[in-house]
Amino acid sequence: MKDIDALKELQKIDGEIFTIKVDIEEKPKGLKKLEDDFIAQSLALKELESDLKTIQLEHKEKELDLQSKEAVVKKQKGQVFQVKTNKELYALQLEIEKENADNSLLEDAILLMLEKIDNIIQSIAQEKSKLAHDQIQLNKNKADIELVIKELNEKLEALHSSRKRVIETGVEPQILELYERILENKGELAIVPVEREMCSGCNRSVRPQIVNELRLGKMKTCENCARIIYVQEDE
Ligand SMILES: [Zn+2]
Hints:
Layout: H1 3-79, H2 86-168, H3 173-186, E1 191-195, E2 198-199, H4 208-215, E3 220-221, E4 228-231
Parallel strand pairs: 1-4
Antiparallel strand pairs: 1-2, 3-4
């Protein structure tokens, strides 16, 4: 194989290797966002559960408070028949009225709390079911991506074997070294055709003299982008 033909063959393989490597790098990025969302949702759920605990404790305290206050009123009502004077009776009745009014406010607060507790319990149930669903989806996506990456890695291996076979046909070591150095610098393309007297790597024109030299079979690089250039047989 002529060196230039071997390089063209290598470029074909290296182009595919480049694309696959980009793919392998890009694939897990979509997953990362899903994972981040999932973690954020799990944290939100934990927060809800902690809110629930707090308000349930408060609720218990208020219930106990109400119970002891109602016991006080009950006791005061028992005292109504034991007071000696109208003045004492009046004072006691006032006291009972005030306690009853306070207790009624406390009952309202407890009702509001119960409503809030119900709402939080409902939200927790919704979040839990959503998280369970997302977990399944996430695992599925993970497995899909792992499979795709495994296949891409197998392709890479096969391409590297092909690459080795091309090199083993006997490419001039200095030329191979030049090609690989350019490939490392440019990433995807190290050798490109000249089309209509333009380098197809950088789209800048190639001097006619250089095109002539290429036609004579010389190896040349683009004066602008430094890639190896060649002319197609039919140009
Ligand atoms: Zn160029």
